[in-house]
Amino acid sequence: MKIVSPGFEVLDDYFRQGRVLEQIERCGRVCYKSEDRISPASAVPFIRGIIQRGHESVLEMAQLVLEVEVDGESTVQKFFERIPRFFQADRLGKGRFLLSGNPRAFRDAAREHKDLKIVKAVLRHLVEVHPALFEDLAPRHGWVPQDGVRVRSLAAPEVDALPVELLVRHRTLLVHLVVNRAVTHELVRHRVASYLQESQRYCRYGEDRFGGEVAFIRPCFFEEGTAGFELWAEAMETTERIYLELLKRHSPQAARTVLPNSCKTEIMVHATLAEWFHIVRLRASKAADPSMREIMRLLFPELARRFPAVFEPLADALRDA
């Protein structure tokens, strides 16, 4: 049995370097703990396989930020009348607006709103920039040019230079959390975000790559050496023994039914800065679950360091909490 502390890693270099495909692959592989299969050439076949199997939730783990210019106001109005779901859109001026969303949202737009001129222009641009993500959606004759509509991708420095009221809506942050499963049960209730989590259905913890043991998160409720901690550790050891016995006869998805909330899990969380502000404000307060509060208070200083204009207003409230 292994006991580990909760922790996090902010994975922002992918965004800053424009490595959209690699970011998606890194997130997807946490589900199966197959990060060792990542190579310089593995992202494209991984993503194509995900698309072929219809597992498009994996494609939510990146953000595409576009500037759209349109000559005709009626074209813009038609788009905003039927603005596809899961997008952020803000007008920048007459005939200009900022549009952002994850690749899955743009794929949904291509399927559900392909009659809109702006959607056609956006998809024509995206299939040129990220063919692996959108090439399968092209009509028979491809995405033809749309007169009067111009689309370009914003580079990371341009996004980071946006005014704070736009930054919080269009800038996302990817965080890799190592926590117990009770925390993730609460975290995924924040619906305006995307998640990929280590799968107990597929991970066989009796294998050598897991050290032949189950990992548990050190509980914040009991100090080591106390009777409470010893009782907790005894329960985890018993659970691990039963789980490993079940694995000898049954599948991981059957054996996992005995695993407790204390199990270590890894989860990728991808959300806008506005949503991260909301999550931390709620989950780092005194009213939050202690395990959730523990990880959010570990994470908050790093968020404030990276985006002080967004998160520093929370500092006083959390200091008093």
TrEMBL record:
Gene3D superfamilies: 3.30.1360.170. It holds the Pfam family Thy1. This is FAD-dependent thymidylate synthase. The lineage of its organism: Bacteria, Deltaproteobacteria, Dissulfurirhabdaceae, Dissulfurirhabdus. GO terms for molecular function: flavin adenine dinucleotide binding; NADPH binding; thymidylate synthase (FAD) activity; thymidylate synthase activity. One of its GO terms (biological process) is dTMP biosynthetic process. It comes from the Bacteria. InterPro entries: Thymidylate_synthase_ThyX, Thymidylate_synthase_ThyX_sf.
